[in-house]
Amino acid sequence: MPDIIGAMDRRATILRRAALPVQRAGQTLGDFAPAFTRWAAFKWNSSRLAGEAAQAQPFDDVELVVRDDSETRTITNQDRVQVSGVTYAIDGHPVRYRAKGRIYLRLTSRLGG
Length: 113
Fold this sequence. Notes:
Blueprint: E1 10-17, E2 32-48, H1 50-53, E3 59-67, E4 80-83, E5 86-90, E6 95-97, E7 102-108
Antiparallel strand pairs: 1-2, 1-4, 2-3, 3-7, 4-5, 5-7, 6-7
């Protein structure tokens, strides 16, 4: 995995929905709320065109790196990440790189669910 680490100069807030005791059919999920904030390295991969992705509008493709700790290990693709006032969905599963003590996240501005 390429190393995009540089200055961890961005504040990334992990947003998470509150856990519901039992999820019933038709029950709406709660809103996303801040779970924790960490310093992160941020890299733009591209701003994909709508035609490429067959979407109604373009979306951003971003990589984010955070330090590995007990809270960042709980990040899943069900969470959202907010950086500089923009909310991103996590695309795929976070990749933990133990040798360097980092977790790599691929983010997209295309929000679903």
